[in-house]
Amino acid sequence: MASLRTADSRLRSYFKENYIPQVCEALLCGLLITCPEDPLKYLQKMIITIMENGLESLLWDMCIDPSMKPKIRRLSETYMEQLFGLDDQLMTPELMIKACTFYTGHLVKTHFCIWRDIAIPLINEEDILAEKMEKAIEYDNFRLQKYVFRLWHSYAAGQKKLLTEALLRIRKMCHHYKLIITLTKWRDKARYEYKKREDELMLKHELQLRKWRSKVKVAAKEEPIPPEYSLSKASLLGEIPECDISLLPERAVSQIFYYLTLRELVICGQVCHSWMLMTQASSLWNSIDFSTVKNIITDKYIVSTLQRWRLNVLRLNFRGCLLRSKTLRSVSLCRNLQELNVSDCPTLTDESMRYISEGCAGVLYLNLSNTTITNRTMRLLPRYFPNLQNLSLAYCRKFTDKGLRYLNLGNGCHKLIYLDLSGCTQISVQGFRNIANSCTGIMHLTINDMPTLTDNCVKALAEKCTRITSIVFIGAPHISDCAFKALSTCNLRKIRFEGNKRITDACFQYIKNYPNINHIYMVDCKRITDGSLKLLSPLKQLTVLNLANCIRIGDVGLKQFLDGPVSTRIRELNLSNCIHLSDASIVKLSERCSNLNYLSLRNCEYLTDLGIEHIVYIFSLVSVDLSGTNISNEGLMTLSRHKKIKELSLSECYKITDVGIQAFCKGSLILEHLDVSYCPQLSDEIIKALAIYCIYLTSLSIAGCPKITDSAMEMLSAKCHYLHILDISGCVLLTDQMLEDLQMGCKQLRILKMQYCRLISKEAARRMSSMVQQQEYNPNDPPLWFGYDYEGKPLTKQEITPLKEDEEITVTDSIYSGEEEVV
Asked: Which segments constitute the F-box domain (predicted)?
């Protein structure tokens, strides 16, 4: 019969509740023992008996005759539950058999061992002892072998380790020697290439210098060349190959002529017929700048030019031109004019502006600074210039607050985004309220040289001009921290202040709340301390910071500033005259400012060569100002490893010599600007180094260097053809020959300063003035504060006395003398 252990629980319950296993057990036991002849009748009879007695009193031997009942002890009330799998007991017959078998075996084993020990006679004890000794000896030998093997194993492992270490040392030594050999070869190769480059540069320099001198001799034998043609003739002596510009595409020609000034364009138009046609392109006359020829230009030429190109002119510049009223009225012919600059024009009147405004309604940019306009002109602005965006009224002191109220008339100047009111001291608080009511869209505000500007004026503007993003208040000493509180409603991005003693660290509490500010210019604000820098450190958009002459700033404040997120964004940092800064600040700069491009540490006296060494690690740096520091030749040699510096200022650095400048020039082939002014210890050797290595130089200042001679300037003129700015003030040994060399070699020279050059004649200076745009000349002896006399000899302390004012001859904005004939 299959077991019911895995059967359904309802079936199992049914069997138990109706005593089916007990009934079956009783019937089967009766059949097995009684063995009736008719089992069916027997079963019927027994079932009836069970039903009469009840199931509760049912026993397994109930169906057996009492005389035939077996005399055995029951192990369980019934075996049928086990048979049907309905019992929950752990004891089964199989387990009982195993238990009995184990118990019987244990008894047999115990009694047999005791019997064996008694029955079997004892073996000889000597044999047992001998066997034990043999086993002991064997075990002892095993332990000895194990001990010896352990010692041998540790020794072998140690030797193997020593061998491995020795092998590694040998490999390192081999690698080290290989590196030494490689580096030695590389060093020799680098030295060879460096020497080869030096020789090539020197050879090239000598060849170019010889060629230059031969050209100078040829030019000296020829007849004198008029100034107006000297430039074109000199160009024939250069190394530029002949080229017919008329063969170039029209677009390329227009782009070339686009960079020329008005006088240069007129001169080019007189070269030949084809050049004249090229200079008549309408695109070249979109922008006309008459200010470059203001000293020689005639009203007739201006009028004719404006009449001819009236439909093409978009931008006009009359700055500083002395013109007649009729000439100014001719501006009204330019109906498409967008930009007009009539600043510094003494003849500009309200009547002239009326004519101009009636004809040029599309003007977007208007510069009226330093003119005599009145409220009448202010009334014209909103009426005739509805699209005006940029307006400059700087130093116009004849209009009043009432004139500013006119800006709200008609359509008003509501599109104005830039306003310059510098020097307009007549404007009161009411005037600024009028501006706020009229020009609510102002974004850029410039108010310089305004001692009458107060916090109330700024509050009046900030109340309605909430779009201001840029403010420039230079020369406004009465502005205080309250002005920044008023400007907190604006989204400022640029702040420029200078020479203010009322601004304190408290203003930076408001500045730090300007999330988009990127330019902070706080120069000569004496009350600013390290606390201000700490407040600026969270500004993530700040890229330009100028705190020059803020003498209370030190290493602690700069460290706190650089610890913030601003250090990764800063591009320009000016800390001139922050005398408490030291090398520790430079170390922090090199660690944090990976994108710094411009750095000024002028007059930081505690800066040494150790700090200069860390400047080299600011790889993005292109401009450095180390004037007035303690840098020496070692620092310059270290700085030469940077390779990317384009601008370097070393003015008043008395520890540097020619050797340091030469070393720097050798490593800075892309140098464009160099300032070594007031370093009297320098000589011609630095000019020679510049001529050999720094041929792309555009600006050079050697003022106060009395040892510079004509021979050095000859080399500079022969090699540095891109020079635009040159300052040779105080170079007392220079003569007229130097100017002749500059005229032939430096054709792109625009600004020339030669103060206190007594050996340069006035006639030569006059001739040179026709070749440059701006020139400063003074033939007097150098002042005593230069530290040397008219021969370049150093002065003693007793000889240095208070300086009297020297007579100065200044020629500014000069032009070619032959331009009058051209025009």
From this structure: 242-288
Domain parsing of the chain, residue ranges? 1-66, 139-203, 493-620, 640-801
Confidence of residue 124 (pLDDT cuts 50, 70, 90): low
Long-range contacts of range 460-464, CB-CB < 8 Å, 24 or more positions apart? 460/429, 460/432, 460/433, 460/436, 461/432, 461/435, 461/436, 462/486, 462/487, 462/489, 462/490, 463/436, 464/436, 464/437, 464/440
Question: Is the CB of residue 668 less than 8 Å from the CB of residue 643?
Answer: yes
Q: What percent helix, strand, coil does the chain show, rounded to 5? A: 50, 10, 40
What is residue 52's DSSP assignment? H
Report helix, strand or coil for 804. Answer: coil
Classify domain 640-801 at the CATH superfamily level. Answer: Ribonuclease Inhibitor (3.80.10.10)
Q: For 490-546, what is each residue's pLDDT tens digit? A: 889 999 998 888 899 888 888 888 888 999 999 998 899 999 998 998 898 999 999
| Residue 539 region by backbone torsions, left for phi larger than 0, else alpha for psi between -120 and 50, else beta | beta
How many other CB atoms are found less than 10 A from the CB of residue 766?
15
621-642, pLDDT tens digit by residue? 999 999 999 999 999 999 999 9
What is the distance between the alpha carbons of residues 626 and 649, in angstroms, rounded to a whole number?
A: 6
**Overall CATH class of domain 493-620:** alpha beta
Distance of alpha carbon 675 from the chain centroid = 25
Query: What's the number of CA atoms in the CB half-sphere (13 Å) around residue 209?
Result: 15
Q: Examine domains 493-620 and 640-801 and report if their fold is the same.
A: yes
> Does the pLDDT of residue 820 top 70, yes or no?
no
Query: What SS3 string covers 149-202?
Result: HHHHHHHHHHHHHHHHHHHHHHHHHHHHHHHHHHHHHHHHHHHHHHHHHHHHHH
